[in-house]
Amino acid sequence: MKIVDEDPKELGYEFGRWTAARLAEHLEKETGIKLSGSQVRRILRRKKYVYIWAKYSLEDKQDKKLRKAFKEKLDEYLKLAKEKPESIQVWFWDECGFSLRVIRRRAWTKKGKRKKVNGQRKRGRVNVMGALRYNDKKRVCFMIKKGNSETFHEQLKKLHEEIRQEWINLGNLPEDFREKGPKIIIILDNASYHKKKDVIEQVEKELPNIRLEFLPAYSPDYNLIELVWHSAKEYIANREFENKEELEKVVNQLLNEGGLIIKWSRKLKNKGNAVNVT
User: What Å distances lie between residue 77 and 4, 184, 190, CA to CA?
Assistant: First the structure.
């Protein structure tokens, strides 16, 4: 049944996916053996095949050399963060939105029935900008009105102050943080407002402990905080919220108050790729 794994277009067909009926027709042409679609489905099931959605892939848009180089750099940062957490911290940064519209997810139901969720489109959205520390999985997430360069800069300053205060609480002098405090590596994507020239200059001037490391294009699988967003959306899936304030309260409990349990061993999916950065 190797034919199932081949692209139909490579065999001269105009369609892009195999159905049982199409497979039966193709096999008859190739072998002269006539099978029905239902017979082909039974054969496929016996061979452990299932009929599920295909995954989107970003591989054709990725630069493999850049990804490899970045992964090597990231691995080195993570190694140092484990060995010398007092000297270097690695934080994964990103933005996410949670809508009042009910998020549908698959759920167990009796055969022949399907669970229903409210299909009404409610207006309202909770936007979040935040970071996840690699070493201890600490999360610092901020509720924001809109993602832009000014907001990004402000939240970076808040994160910087949070880490600075944490360092002072360990018995260190505030004035020593710039020279003796940990280097803060921020892993983030290439959103235009992340890379705005004046923001970069402000960060270098005001937050010298912070170093921004931008992901290769189309590489969300290297950003560990994606797993936080995914787990939060799984938690609130199929739930209905009366208003934005109610949704924001739950999102804050999940992200900032320890209400979210995450399986860190789960692989991060890159719409086709799966890379485990833990």
Answer: 42, 10, 19
Residue 131's DSSP bridge partners are: 93, 140
Sign of CA dihedral 227, 266, 66, 56: negative
Q: Is 96 helix (H, G, I), strand (E, B) or coil?
A: strand
Cα–Cα distance, 206 to 202 (Å, whole number): 6
- CA dist 207 and 225 (Å) reads 22
Domain ranges in the chain are: 2-46, 59-275
Q: What is the pLDDT of residues 110-119, one digit of tens each?
A: 667 666 656 5
Q: What is the pTM of this model?
A: 0.75
Helix or strand (DSSP H, E) at 55:
none
Sign of CA dihedral 257, 262, 264, 268: negative
CATH 3.30.420.10 is held by the domain 59-275: yes
Q: What is the 3-state secondary structure (H, E, C) of 125-152?
A: EEEEEEEEECCCCCEEEEEECCCCHHHH
Phi, psi angle pair for 140, to nearest 5°: -130, 105
Distance (Å, whole) CA 184 – CA 182: 6
The Cα 36–Cα 104 span in angstroms is 35
Token duo for residue 234: 């799984």
Instruction: Check residues 213 and 57 and name the one with the higher pLDDT.
Output: 213
How many residues are given for the chain? 278
- The Cα 153–Cα 142 span in angstroms is 12
